[in-house]
Amino acid sequence: MSATREFVEADNAEAIITRIEHKSRKIESLLKQSKPVEALKTALEGSPPNTRDERCKSANWIVVHRAIMAIKDLDALFSSLDPEYYDILMKYLYRGLSTGDRPTCDQCLRIHERLTEKAGLGCILRSLADTMNTV
Fold first, then answer.
1. Long-range contacts of 104-113, Cβ-Cβ distance < 8 Å, separation of 24 or more
2. For 2-32, what is each residue's pLDDT tens digit?
3. What is the reported pTM?
C-alpha cells in the first residue's frame, strides 16, 4: 500500500513540476515586458504546490523568488495585489529570509514591512501558524 502511495505522489510531483515550469516561462515573459507585479501575482497563483515533495516546493520557490526580486515599486505592488495573496506572500518572504542571502533578505524585509502595514499582524500569525501549506 505504501509503495502505491509513493508512486501516486511521484506522478503528482511530476505533474506539479510541469505546471511550475509553464508558470516560470509565463513569469519570464512578464518580466521581459516590465510587468513585475503581474509576474508576482502569477507566481503566487496556485501556491504552495499541493504536495509534500521538496523538489516541487524548491522549484516553486525559485519561480516566486525571481518575481520577488524583480519588484521595485512597492506602491504599485500593494495597490494591485489582491488581499487573498497576502498570507501566501508572507510565507514566501519568510522562506526568503531563511536563505541568509543578503540581497534576498533585504528585498524580503522591504516587502515584509509594507505587507505588515497593509495586512496587519494577523498576516504574520496566519503564515506562521499554517503548518499544512508549507512553502
1. 104/65, 104/68, 104/69, 107/68, 107/69, 107/71, 108/68, 110/74, 111/68, 111/71, 111/74, 111/77
2. 444 444 455 688 899 999 999 999 999 999 9
3. 0.88
| Nearest-angstrom CA–CA distance, 111 and 108 | 5
Alpha carbon distance 12, 110 (integer Å): 35
- How many Å apart are CA 107 and CA 119, to the nearest integer? 18
Taking only the tens place, the pLDDT of each residue in 95-105 is 999 999 999 99
82 Cβ neighbours under 8 A, 6+ residues apart: 41
Q: What is the CATH number of domain 2-129?
A: 1.25.40.190
